[in-house]
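From: lab user (bench 3)
To: helpdesk
Subject: output format question, protein + WQD

Hello, I'm new to running complex predictions and I'm not sure whether the block I got back is the full result or only part of it. Here's what I submitted:
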Amino acid sequence: MKVLVTGGLGFIGSHTVVELQNEGFEVVIIDNLSNSSEEVLKGIVAITGKTPIFEKMDLREKPAVQNFFKKHHDIAGVIHFAASKAVGESVENPLLYYENNISSLVYILQELQQKPEANFIFSSSCTVYGQAEKMPITEEAPLQKALSPYGATKQMGEDIITDVAKVTNINAILLRYFNPVGAHPSAEIGELPIGVPQNLIPFITQTGIGMRAELAVYGDDYPTPDGTCIRDYIHVVDLAKAHVVALQRLINKKNATKVEIFNLGTGTGSSVLEVINTFEKVSGKKLPYKIVSRREGDITSAYANTDRANTVLGWKAQSTLEHSLSSAWKWEQKIRS
Ligand code: WQD
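Helpdesk reply: Thanks, we reran it on our side. This is the complete output you should expect:
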């Protein structure tokens, strides 16, 4: 069976391509290489021995999207990762985010609605919850007004898919990721942040390897046990496997409704200082850091209630924070060697 993975050379996309190939799917990747490189293809092949079809394409080009679906009319499902995803950049350049993240989605859905049946997996984010009232966060938690255009595009994306699924033959699963971290155990693929990493784990591993002088901890005056923010750090391979399970659920028509939503996390919250201590344990390195002022837009705490994913989807994250951090560290050492 042929599956389209948009953004398939990206961090989560490439790990999902590997797991799809492991399950016997034929994979077609669309990527515009704006935040990835063709080198990632080599990493995928090194792991699975199978070469996905790769089409360099920008999903903002509507004619290109139309031609793609004419050519690949036998697609059994689409996993849609391709999107801009830097929160800070989205505040500086909202139209880049609204055009890229929304137009691409609309053009793909316009093609899928013409097919007799279509299965669509959407890359969403716990960002849609904002600062949820209750921890752990369930899928019923009320959505707060997005704090950034990036978060707004994820909320709009979910609404667009829900409205379209109601009146077409598209079945969809929305996957709300918590914080994806780590790298494939082979260290053939992993996170490749461009420039100064915005996210905590790549900044920590780059500090550990000596690329950065020290980590700035954005605030230790939050209402948490040690004063630093709490997040749910989920291993990217666990996340990738959830996408395969979700796609198989739709292909096998096991979905209960036209649109289903699942939180993907470990269910455990870890503070920034706990992450630092765990990194020092797995790397044997002392991590230099300093406490600075809070980062605009950061929420205090977010970790998932994973009951629905565990019971309905039949998926559960396997990796601990320690395992995730050691895979991230192994990857950092590999790419800097
Ligand atoms: C985690 C914690 C920071 C860097 C974002 C997006 C989310 C998703 C994942 C796309 C926070 C602290 C960080 C640093 C720090 N992306 N931190 N020093 O903000 O929870 O989520 O990335 O889907 O949508 O919002 O992740 O890794 O940036 O921050 O102290 O140099 O680490 O304050 O508490 P975040 P993050």
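A quick orientation on your result: The mean pLDDT is 97. Let us know if anything else is unclear.
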